[in-house]
Model the fold of this input.
Amino acid sequence: MRLAVNPTRMELLRLRRRLGLARRGHKLLKDKQDELMKRFMGLVTQIKELRLSVEEELERSFRRFLVARSVGGGEVVETAVSLPTRKTSVEVKRQQVMNLVVPVFELKSEGKVASYGLATTPAELDTALMAMEKALGRMVELASKEKALELIGDEIARTRRRVNALEYVLIPNLEETIRYVSMKLSEMERGNLTRLMRVKDMVREH
Amino acid sequence: MKLHVIGDNQAVLGFRLVGVAGSVAVEREDALSALKDAIADREIGVVLVTEKVAAAIRDEVEARLYGLGFPLVLEIPDSSGPAPGRLDIEEVVRKAIGVSI
Done:
């Protein structure tokens, strides 16, 4: 669709400037999109692996708990874990990915892992604990990666919309308008020339 | 910020050992109120929900799982192992770039 402008030289210059700007913006956005896409794909593979390992570790840990319970008896285990000394919290940090701020979680643990007497509890409980501890760190990592993935995905969709708007709407429109204005200008030029020749002929005949 | 776990008895027990507080939930009502409490608590940064519980409150979890804002919700398998047919990462990918990989 042609833009509504007056076919003048001034307007032509202005349009050409706008086209240059639009092309530059388009290129930049396209580069941004490519880079986002690259990171997105990297994250996808990372998350897939991470999820598998988290699930595996968690399952192992739960199974060990089960063994611990059956070896040591339910009450022993219940009492052993009823007063945990370990405190776990997460710390949020911000990481910049392109123009996005992505939260990164870091696990902070303090206190002893084992809050129970080693003599009265089965050894399986210890291994279950270790596995749990390991899985927990991975889980937190997984959560922040999934968040980052979501944020980047949204940004990709947004950027793609802009790239498409420039590529398929603004730039073609500008090009069409420029063509129209320059045609109109040369048509006016030709009209002017013939008018001059005609006038000159008339002058010569007298 | 803290972590919080919502799941069956065993999951909560296990996580308590490594210093993560949790609420035991099996029925939909329990799970819903637990999730709501966890979201309302501004101290909680990550909520871990076991798959069985997540399945009971699928709609609520879904809205949170891939939505923006805090807290992050993560689905984890419980003691019986990963459940089949879980919402996959491919879904997110397809939503974001429109092609499946």
Summary: Chain B has a mean pLDDT of 73.
